[in-house]
Amino acid sequence: MSTNNASAKSKSRSAARLASVQALYQMDMEDIGIARLLNEFHSHRLGQEIEDALYADADPDFFDDVVSGVDARRAEIDELVDGKLGEKWKMERLDKTMLQLLRCGTYELIARPDVPTATVIDEYLDVAHAFFDKKDAKFVNGLLDAVAKDVRAR
Predict the structure, then answer these.
(1) CA separation for the pair 142, 130 (Å, rounded)
(2) Residue 54 has pLDDT above 80, yes or no
(3) What pLDDT digit, counting tens, does each position of 27-47 carry?
(4) Distance separating alpha carbons of residues 20 and 9, to the nearest angstrom
(5) DSSP three-state, residue 153
(6) Helix axes 134-151, 96-111, angle to 10 degrees
(7) What is the DSSP string of 89-105?
(8) Closest CA to 101 of 61, 128, 120
């Protein structure tokens, strides 16, 4: 794969990660089914222009895998995330966007061995910076690193 192709793939996966967090947030807020959600994002969001903002061209297969994977393995993912929260923290206290971000990152760590651990953590740190301040981004880094230590051989 050429450098340009690798760069394009990386950017489209980054866009897919951001869209996955947004889609899962929408799914929780509106309580819509996975098929309708995926269809809506494919038809109206991925690579589309909305209110003069162009959505990046996301890798649709990667997007589908992350969103569907989080949905299918939510109980397993939530158990891993919950196990890394401090004893005073409960998942219900997490910001809804933060929760989806952590679910997506955890899913990739457990189900996408083709994506290096550092890439998963760095990518979701970037997503965190789009929504949160530096302190919250450090929280994402720490939690996903702790999950990675449990689920991936280094």
Answers:
(1) 17
(2) no
(3) 988 888 898 888 888 787 665
(4) 16
(5) coil
(6) 30
(7) --GGGS-HHHHHHHHHH
(8) 128
Q: Distance of CA 131 to CAs 35, 67, 77, 136, Å?
A: 26, 19, 21, 9
DSSP 132: S
Dihedral sign for Cα atoms in the order 45, 103, 120, 97: positive
**Helix, strand counts (H, E) of the chain:** 7, 2
What's the DSSP call for residue 56? Answer: P
Nearest-angstrom CA–CA distance, 115 and 35:
25
Q: What are the tokens at 19?
A: 């869209």
Closest CA to 110 of 75, 150, 67, 138: 150
**Which residue matches tokens 């994977």?**
69
Strand partners, 49: 54
Average pLDDT of the chain, as a whole number: 86
Which residue is it, tokens 């457990």?
Answer: 110
Is residue 64 predicted with pLDDT exceeding 90?
A: yes
pLDDT at 138: 93
Q: What angle do CA 112, 45, 48 make, to 5 degrees?
A: 115
How much is the pTM? 0.89
The count of residues in the chain is 154
